[in-house]
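SEQUENCE-TO-STRUCTURE ENTRY
===========================

Subject: a protein chain together with a token-level encoding of how that chain folds.

Sequence line: the amino acid chain in single-letter code, read from start to end.

Question of interest: how does this chain fold, as expressed in backbone structure tokens?
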Amino acid sequence: MKTLLRTLLYLALIVWLGAEIFFPVVAAITFGTLQPDTHTAGTIVGQLLRILHGMGMVSGLVLLALLALAPAWGIYKPRAVLAPMILVVLMLALTVYSQYGIIPAMERDRIAAGGAINAVPASSAYRIHFNQLHNRSEHVEEAILLIGLATVALVARAETARA
């Protein structure tokens, strides 16, 4: 039973971080393939980002539940799971912020600009704000990935502390 629960914990981490690592590759290929039509590429990537966030939120909740229950089940020591749990909460908070804060604001800017953000001049307030949000979104996703890697290291450390 302990092996199954640890496997589920690692699987949740793998799914979330794997998606975070793979997403920029998919985005680059999408924009490269649809080069002249950045609006369509952006729409596709936006939908993929929503899916990524959904996967992250489910994985994060599974991780939190398993980490919270692990000491009671004798899988990890209580102190060993505290830091990974804090990092997972931070990852979840960043994911929720991106999903429900950044993406809707970018969508509002896109609609206010007439539907295709690249069709408006670079000096347009909507385009400038959209680009700022886009950069923020990239930084948030990078932070989620880096925090996730730190979480993996802390879970591995908890594994050795268990022994």
User: Anything to note?
Assistant: The helical segments are 2-33, 38-69, 78-112, 125-162. The chain has one domain: 2-162. Residues 2-162 form one domain. The mean pLDDT is 92.
